[in-house]
From TrEMBL:
Matching SMART domains: HDc
Origin species: Pseudonocardia nematodicida
Lineage of origin: Bacteria, Bacillati, Actinomycetota, Actinomycetes, Pseudonocardiales
UniProt keyword annotation of Nucleotidyltransferase present: yes
Domain HD residue range list: 422-545
Protein name listed in UniProt: [protein-PII] uridylyltransferase
Length: 803
């Protein structure tokens, strides 16, 4: 049997495979696995070097590791980053080939270089990425004195050149963050390169090596361990060097790490990443301030303290405390510092945050009026508040102001519509609400309601009901008047009332308006219709801010129109104020209708947006039109977020106008001409749409993972007095072609669709269909049975099996 020390790289690969398989059967934890992998590679490399005759001190050749192996953070499929150092020794190129080629031939990922001490220092001064690797060199084999000499020289050059390259460090870091997003908030985060990921910790180490900041705190060290553990398990389970944690891997990795489920893992990762991101941002500021001064800058006086507000000063480009400021004597000081930082755009200094965290007491109940005023000033600053609240939260000050925040901190969303954790979503909604304060009679309640509307999440039960109870306590603690507490509680309890009602019922229906007003009258109690009117305007603005702060495409033009129409009709019913429709009919629709009547064929128009595109389809109104279009849209890999159906009457017959807010599931948007061509073929019966969709569903979801764990579909019935239609509402799990299958099922049941409103919320859909006539109970049961069947996928799977 060949021993590992023989120098054959194939032996290294076999030994690594045995180690990974053994670790899978007898799991000793990711940290132990990394240590074993480092020992394995160190042993093979040192044995190979001995075989090649590297020699010891004074031999003039040394092998050093950088990167993951150099840091002893080697994950199962990390590349080996190796540098062969030499002092001009003859035959070094041959030696390098004898070292590298076996590794290449064995398929081991390798990043390698050959350097003299002078070359190593030279590259460290010109190549930022190489420099950050070389300052972490670890001796593997050969001349240890040469390794130490190069390491010390590179670190000295790193410190000496920091002033000239610091701007480059900041720029490349910001670009990396922009490109890879936040680890804390991405559904599928990049553990290595994302904001708050492992590269940020390496940056902190590099700044510490330059003697500009202290070594990372215990919190960052713990975050590093968690990020490495998840990355190690991701490598081990996938068999590849993956750095992006995919949703389908998260449950298994959470179980291996004994963290619970993927949501608990996401919450743990979010907390870790936010600690790293905060430490990195503070570290970069501290490093800039600590850079050595040269020339005239060294002769300038130290920066003076510039007053900004009572007890608050600017010093060295940061917000700090005046010398006589005391949080114990000034209850509003913490919030005044925060509001000043957001107003000026200056960060709060780390020393100030620490001092406030150590000395600021909890505010008494009710809060002093000055504290509430500073809170509202902070919430009204918009985007600038995000970083400020984050800094308060990371130092424990925000939780001292709002103890209820702990239940939502780092709480991951339960569907893909939300792009933020719940706590960050609350702040983002408050940012959007700050831009809407002039639309409402009570901007203070809008801001506080936006900040707290989802505070009931993470506690079990209906979050709106739980949140209502919590905000009553919070409102009293803030010092709000009793009637304002009632309004705030009603905002939280009913913050989904307008969007849910507007997208599932007809806003023109007097019964819809009556239901909304009855609900809100019950919420305000003795407040009367004036309070109901104020609450309506607050809920209207909150619905917009909530949608904008959820994710791209949620506040669609369709949803905006419906919500504002419902709000306007309710206000007209309340106090008689004139109701202006949200806007005239889209002139494009009339033009498309004329084009359809002119040539008799469908018209397809695409409008690209920053995040979501709009597809408008016009065709003669007939049974089967909506299902045909929905099927063609799905066939072209477009995921529908919202959809609407209206009918344009006129000379030449009615024309159905269908609008879809979509994003491509794969690649870019299709050619509108191809979409129109396929739609023509479907309408002519020359394209078997069901067969094509069945193939597509098999191709992209062959095993339908997790389908048995999805909630069963549900159908609800309502009466639409305005149009005389009956409303069928379907709640189901989304899948490719669902809208086509459901509308086709309705058409096969003989129903005429008066209108349709479709909404995708993450992995779920809430689709409403206005059905002409009044089907009796037996007919409704049959329609419901058919719709539930296709929503559950039974009919489509049976057909696919027949084929």
């Amino acid at each position: 049997m060949t021993v590992l020390g023989s120098g054959e790289a194939a032996d290294l690969v076999r030994a690594r495979t045995v180690l990974l398989e053994s670790n899978g059967r007898h799991h000793h934890g990711p940290e132990a696995l990394r240590a074993a992998l480092v020992d394995l590679h160190d042993f093979w490399l040192s044995s190979r070097c001995a075989t090649l005759g590297f020699g010891g001190d004074g031999s003039g050749a040394a092998l050093v590791a950088v990167g993951a192996l150099g840091r002893r953070e080697l994950c199962p499929y990390s590349d080996l980053d190796l540098v062969l150092l030499h002092d001009g020794r003859k035959g070094i190129d041959t030696l390098a080939e004898q070292l590298w080629y076996p590794l290449w031939d064995a398929g081991i990922g390798l990043d390698h270089s050959v350097r003299t001490p002078g070359q190593a220092v030279q590259i460290a001064t010109t190549d930022l990425r190489a420099a950050m690797g070389l300052i972490e060199t670890r001796h593997i084999a050969g001349d240890g004195k040469l390794s130490a000499k190069v390491r010390d020289a590179v670190r000295q050059a790193w410190r000496a050149g920091m002033r000239s390259r610091f701007d480059e460090i900041v720029e490349t870091t910001a670009e990396r963050w922009r490109r890879n997003g936040d680890v804390a908030h991405r559904i599928e985060p990049d553990l290595k390169s994302g904001h708050g990921g492992l590269r940020d910790i390496q940056l902190l180490d590099a700044l510490a090596t330059a003697q500009l900041v202290d070594r990372p705190s215990a919190e960052v060290v713990a975050a590093r361990t968690l990020l490495l553990d998840v990355r190690t398990e991701l490598h081990r389970r996938s068999g590849r060097a993956h750095d992006v944690l995919r949703a389908q891997d998260a449950d298994d990795i959470a179980a291996e790490l004994e963290i619970g489920d993927r949501f608990e893992l996401a919450r743990s990762l979010s907390g870790a990443a936010r600690a790293v991101a905060f430490a990195t941002e503070v570290g970069l500021r501290q490093a800039r301030n600590a850079l050595p001064k040269r020339g005239l800058a060294a002769l300038r006086r130290a920066p003076v303290r510039r007053p900004l507000d009572s007890g608050v000063v600017e010093h060295g480009g940061e917000v700090g405390l005046a010398r006589d400021a005391s949080a114990a004597k000034d209850p509003a000081l913490v919030l005044r510092v925060a509001a000043t930082a957001a107003r000026t755009g200056l960060p709060i200094s780390a020393g100030t945050l620490t001092r406030l965290a150590d000395t600021a007491p909890e505010l008494r109940t009710p809060w002093p009026r000055a504290a509430l005023a500073e809170l509202l000033a902070l919430l009204g600053t918009g985007e600038a508040m995000v970083g400020v609240i984050e800094s308060l939260d990371r130092t424990g000050l925000w939780g001292r102001l709002f103890p209820e925040w702990g239940a939502v901190r780092d709480l991951p969303p339960r569907d893909r519509t939300h792009v933020w954790t719940v706590d960050r979503h609350l702040v983002e909604v408050c940012v959007r609400a700050a831009a809407l304060t002039t639309r409402v009679p009570r901007p203070d309640l809008l801001l506080v309601g936006a900040l707290l509307h989802d505070i009931g999440k993470g506690r079990g039960g209906d979050h709106s009901v739980v949140g209502e109870s919590l905000v009553r306590q919070i409102g009293e603690r803030l010092g709000l008047r009793d009637d304002d507490v009632v309004l705030l509680a009603a905002m939280v309890r009913h913050h989904l009332l307008l969007p849910h009602t507007a997208t599932r019922r007809d806003p023109d229906d007097p019964a819809t308006v009556a239901r909304v007003l009855d609900t809100l009258r019950g919420a305000v109690g003795d407040g009367g219709d004036r309070a109901v009117a104020v609450l309506l305007e607050l809920l209207d603005a909150l619905a917009e801010a909530d949608s904008l702060g959820t994710g791209p495409g949620v506040w669609s033009p369709w949803r905006r129109t419906l919500v504002r129409e419902l709000t306007g009709r309710c206000l007209t019913e309340l106090d008689g104020r004139p109701f202006d429709a949200p806007g005239p009919d889209d002139p494009e629709h009339a033009e498309l209708a004329r084009s359809v009547r002119a040539d008799g064929g469908p018209q397809v128009v695409f409008h690209s947006g920053d995040d979501v595109a709009t597809v408008t389809v016009a065709l003669p109104d007939r049974r089967g039109a909506l299902s045909a279009t929905a099927g063609v849209v799905a066939l072209h890999s477009l995921q529908v977020h919202t959809a609407g159906l209206t009918v344009e009457d006129g000379d030449g017959g009615p024309v159905a106008i269908q609008t879809f807010a979509v994003t491509p599931r794969f690649g870019g948007l299709p050619d509108p001409a191809l979409v129109r061509s396929d739609l023509v073929r479907v309408l002519a019966g020359t394209l078997e749409l069901d067969a094509a969709l069945a193939r597509k569903e098999r191709d992209y979801a062959p095993s339908a993972p997790g389908v048995e764990r999805t909630a069963p579909p549900r159908v609800l019935w309502f009466d639409d007095e305005a149009t005389g239609a009956v409303v069928l509402e379907l709640r189901a799990t989304d899948r490719i072609g669902l809208l086509h299958h459901v509308t086709a099922a309705l058409e096969r049941s003989g129903v005429d669709l008066v209108w349709a409103r479709v909404e995708t919320l993450g992995a779920s859909v809430v689709d409403s269909f206005g059905i002409a006539g009044s089907p009796d109970r037996a007919a409704r049961r049959e329609i419901e049975r058919t719709v539930l069947g296709v929503a559950a996928g039974r009919r489509e799977r049976a057909r696919a099996g027949d084929r």
